[in-house]
Automatic annotation (TrEMBL):
This is HTH arsR-type domain-containing protein. Residues 1-92 form the HTH arsR-type domain. GO terms for molecular function: DNA binding; DNA-binding transcription factor activity. Gene3D superfamilies: Winged helix-like DNA-binding domain superfamily/Winged helix DNA-binding domain. Keywords: DNA-binding, Transcription, Transcription regulation. InterPro entries: ArsR-like_HTH, HTH_ArsR_DNA-bd_dom, Metal_resp_trans_reg, WH-like_DNA-bd_sf, WH_DNA-bd_sf.
């Protein structure tokens, strides 16, 4: 199996990471500190989630002075998540 598929599915295997992706989609970019406030999760935990998302090439980062900002690298992931959401919400 393709290693990138494994990285992406691993990255999507946590609710905070999915919430981060939707947040970045809605807000274009965000600092780590802002994400900590947004999700009420510790800074080390947010950084770990972002590292996993970055390794999966779903988010990218840029350093601006003392702050690191994250944004979506692959907007296709939101389409995938939306399809999954519709699928699980369908009445069978």
């Amino acid at each position: 199996m393709n290693d990138q598929i494994i990285r992406v599915t691993r990255a999507l295997n946590h609710p905070i990471r999915i919430q981060i992706l939707y947040y970045l989609n809605d807000n274009q970019k965000s600092s780590v500190n802002n994400l900590v406030k947004q999700f009420d999760v510790s800074q080390p935990a947010i950084s770990r989630h972002l590292r996993i998302l970055e390794e999966a090439k779903l988010v990218k980062s840029e350093q601006v002075k003392q702050e690191r900002y994250y944004s979506l690298e692959d907007k296709h992931v939101i389409k995938i998540l939306d399809v999954l959401r519709r699928h699980v919400n369908e009445d069978f």
